[in-house]
Specification:
The protein has about 450 residues and is of the alpha/beta class. It has three domains: about 15-65 and about 210-285 and about 400-445, 3-Layer(bba) Sandwich (FAD/NAD(P)-binding domain), CATH 3.50.50; about 110-200; about 290-390, Polyamine Oxidase, Chain A, domain 2 (Alpha-Beta Complex), CATH 3.90.660. About 30% of the residues lie in helices and about 25% in strands. It has helices at about 20-35, 75-80, 110-115, 120-135, 145-155, 155-170, 180-195, 210-225, 265-270, 275-285, 355-370, 425-445; strands at about 15-20, 35-40, 55, 60, 90-95, 95-100, 100-105, 200-205, 230, 235-240, 245-250, 250-255, 260, 290-300, 305-310, 320, 335-345, 380-390, 410-415. A seven-stranded mixed beta sheet has the order 7-6-15-16-17-14-18, with helices on both faces. Strand 1 (about 15-20), helix 1 (about 20-35) and strand 2 (about 35-40) form a beta-alpha-beta unit. Helix 1 (about 20-35) packs parallel to helix 8 (about 210-225) and helix 4 packs across helix 6 (about 155-170). It is globular, with a radius of gyration of 22 Å. The model is unreliable at about 1-5 and about 195-200 (pLDDT under 50).
Length: about 450
């Protein structure tokens, strides 16, 4: 379904969108709808970024695990605009927690009673800390504290040792102590909003046929509106001269009136030498973890949970996501799909390890968590990597938060490090892209 085109502007501009992930495509679509000329530069051979897909049993599935929360209104409205709103299924999910060599149900009041690693005191701490954060409406009041510091200060040491400490370490490594309390607040608030009315679980959303359908629909509409996608064209440099932008890329260079970047902030700093010194100094402190995402395709189910958090820092991954315990395996030719979630700092040796060496680390650990894997037949295995997957958000992050208007005339930015106080995700890629496109359009005379 094509949205009605906006009236053509009196002075259409030529705009470069750097990055062909979801945010870049949403921004390009908005700018084209307003009547401007848009070229999207993507460094990889295919657009879509973290929503890129591959095939299992003849069905498309994401390279990196994805789902929606019921609060993801920006993504839902995009799907509706593309005629795909009715293709989102809202399904119950089951959560597990791996601790002390055992797998436990987790995430419901009933499961909490049986979660023995916390003990009686720890269960009470989990309930009290969750309720306390859930009822805090102003995140700004939390900005001065770290998540770990707040848990320690308020006597929630057992829940820190068993639940949040291991999860933070799995995701942020040695940087875990720096993560702001706003991150923890956001996690609890988001999951609370996705609970069903009984309070016994949560409902999550998934697009029939994969979230790649939204990417395909955007690409089709961008093409129909005259937009151009340049895959395998990484941008090397963007510099401003005489009120226009020279964009250099693999294979050539072209001039544009405006540039909207959707790449990670460290990449933006590298690409644009004209950023003001004050902004460059502030934004240079923004850092990320990278993502390693091993995917197994096997002949049987391995656990009874969709999402298992791994509360054990000796394990080489922090999440065991059995996708086919959420979406039926019949859609994938009867095959069962499992993602492992491993976030690493850029200097972690695992980031540059060959795939074969990583599998020698991952497979024994996955078998510890899910012993059924030893009896299963591994049909396929894939290992996907993504740079700058998770911004590291510390205390007082709002002081360094990059605005969508960068301070350089004609340069705008829509990156995952800018969705604060929310955490990264498809919904917020849509939201920040819309905000940046709206700012650009409103600045035009």
């Amino acid at each position: 379904m094509l949205a009605d085109p906006a009236p053509a502007p009196k002075s259409p501009r030529r705009i470069a969108v750097v990055g062909g992930g979801l945010a870049g495509l949403v921004a390009a679509d908005r700018l084209l709808a307003a009547g401007h000329s848009v070229v999207v530069f993507e460094k990889y051979p295919e657009a879509g970024g973290l929503v890129g897909t591959f095939s299992v049993g003849g069905e498309a599935i994401e390279r990196f695990y994805h789902h929606l929360f019921t609060s993801d209104v920006d993504y839902v409205s995009l799907a509706e605009d593309l005629g795909l709103g009715g293709e989102i299924e809202w399904l119950p999910s089951k959560m597990g927690f791996y601790s002390g060599g055992r797998l436990y149900p987790f995430g419901t009041p009933a499961s909490l009673l049986g979660f023995s690693p916390l003990g009686v005191k720890g269960r009470l701490e989990l309930v009290l800390s969750t309720l306390r954060l859930r009822h805090m409406s102003d995140w700004r009041a939390l900005e001065g504290e770290t998540a770990i510091g707040w848990l320690k200060k308020n006597g929630y040491g057992r829940v820190l040792d068993v639940v949040w400490g291991p999860l933070l370490t799995q995701k942020y490594g040695r940087r875990a102590e720096e993560v702001g309390l706003v991150w923890l607040w956001g996690k609890i608030a988001l999951r609370s909003r996705s609970r069903d009315k009984t309070g016994l679980g949560e409902r999550l959303g998934y697009m029939r046929g994969s979230f790649g359908r939204v990417v395909e629909a955007l690409l089709s509409r961008i093409a129909s509106r005259g937009g151009e996608l340049r895959p395998a064209r990484p941008v090397k440099l963007a510099s401003r001269s005489d009120g226009r932008w020279l964009v250099e890329f693999r294979g050539g260079s072209e001039t544009f009136d405006l540039v909207l970047s959707t790449v990670a902030i460290p990449e933006l700093l590298r690409l644009v030498p004209d950023l003001p010194a004050e902004a460059r100094a502030a934004w240079s402190g923004i850092s990320y973890t990278h993502a390693l995402c091993p995917v197994l395709v096997v002949d049987r189910p391995l656990t009874r949970f969709y999402w298992t958090n791994v509360g054990d820092v000796t394990m080489p991954f922090g999440g065991f996501i059995e996708h086919t315990n959420y979406i039926p395996s019949s859609r994938y030719g009867g095959n069962h799909v499992i993602y492992l979630s491993d976030y690493v700092l850029p200097d972690d040796p695992k980031w540059t390890m060959p795939d074969r060496d990583l599998w020698e680390i991952y497979l024994p650990a996955a078998t510890r968590l899910a012993p059924e894997l030893e009896r299963a037949r591994i049909l396929e295995r894939h290992l996907f990597r993504a740079e700058y997957a998770q911004p590291i958000v510390g205390t007082h992050y709002s002081r360094v938060l990059p605005p969508v208007r960068t301070g350089v005339p004609g340069l705008y930015s829509a990156a995952m490090a800018q969705v604060y106080p929310e955490d990264r995700g498809q919904n917020y890629a849509v939201k920040i892209a819309r905000e940046a496109a709206a700012a650009l359009l409103s600045d035009l005379p």
